[in-house]
Amino acid sequence: MFQLQSIMRTISVLVIFLILGFSTQAQGKQWTLAECVQHALENNISIKQSELDLKLTDAEKLSATGNFLPSINAGASVSENTGLSFNPVTNNAQTTTFLSVTGNINVGYTLFDGLQNIRQVQRAKLSKLSAEYRLDKMKDDIALFVANAYLTVLNNKANLASAKSQNLVTVEQIERTNALVDAGTLPRGDLLEIEATNASELQNIAVLENAVTISLISLAQLLLIEDYQNFDIVDEGYDVVMNEISEKPVSEIIASAEENRSEVKIAEQDVALAEKDLQLAKANYLPTLSAFFGYNTRYTDATSFEQFVDPNNPTSTQQIGVVQETGQAVIGEFPNTITREVGAAPFGEQLYLNDGISYGLQLNIPILNGFSVRSNVMRSKVNVERTKYQLEQAKLDLESNVYQAYMDAKGSLKAYEAAQKALESQELAYQYAKDRYDVGLTNAFDFSQSKVRYDNAAIALNQAKYDYIFKLKVLELYFGIEPTDLKF
Fold first, then answer.
1. CATH code, domain carrying 479
2. Has this prediction a pTM greater than 0.85?
3. Which spans of this chain does the record mark as coiled coil (predicted)?
4. Which of 25, 300, 371, 434 is deepest in the core (most CB within 10 A)?
């Protein structure tokens, strides 16, 4: 009877595992760590914002390049005047109603501005380079976040698998103990102790299942995946492998980090930007020279009055004086003019006749501007010194972080090796306790305590394993390995 129950339970367990296997396959794709990292790098919101910051530097560069081009502006106006107004063509006051049109084109070009245009282009290039380094740092950070979340899921899954595996042993012990109790070989207290252990293990399995679900949801949220229920990861093939980077001297890793990591490069670009801003501020001490050219014309439909020689009586004579000695009158001949109203000339003709051109140079020499230039230069100098200190601090922080990561990797490896030995020892102790319990040489309480210590050692090994893998990945990133090239 006992053998039949054991066979039936084994078959039931196999059926359950088969069902779970088919269910997992039905859920769809299982994500690898490399796929998770790549997906995050392509879809993470923070990375997309950094990419937008990089695009803004293109606009900055375009604006700086455009300063080398002349400015060209055209304008036109149309108005209708009623009452006393000045005719825009004759410049005479008229009381009438007329339409007037004016147009102009102005061209300006800066010949010298203290080299500000050149330095603005240089600054735009530095700004773009800084944005690229910030994007690289964001990608490194996101890759670490994803790796940490992924390894957390693996750790929780490994703990859950270990707990379920040990619970199967407990279930078998319950069946065997129950048979021995019924046969009178063991007291009922041993059965109750094993059943209490089973209840505690089932409770722990429920907690671990919840931990797996929560960690999967956290990883899916980090990847911006909304289908939490069907999201799962590949939980195989992530073993501890010896890495040549962990064997390198810490000085070599620090030197590689200073050469490749974005933290120092960002700080260096901040210094270069501050120095360029100082040059731009000092350029305001220098005069600026610009050239200009303007063209304007006008049209009006207002009538005007013009004087003409009378064709019927072209001249008239008038006395203009007297000769003092003789008293003889002096007669002069003058043209005999008449005034008549003249209509507006055609539109095209007026634009041709009424146009004008202006051109020249303009020199602006700064003399006193409320110390605004000097104060800007002072602020820029202070900012240069501040960024230099920040660069020194960035190098110190990077060296400290790399050294800490190096020691963490070394320490986590030792912890993993110690956990392996502890598990081996606990496994031997557990097997010994199990053998003694099977022949009735120890009680259920001592056996359950040995089993608990063995289970805890297995969990500790899982934690040490994935902690070491994560610490090793941190060290690889500091050494200069790209996030997508991390090896697991």
1. 1.20.1600.10
2. no
3. 257-284
4. 300
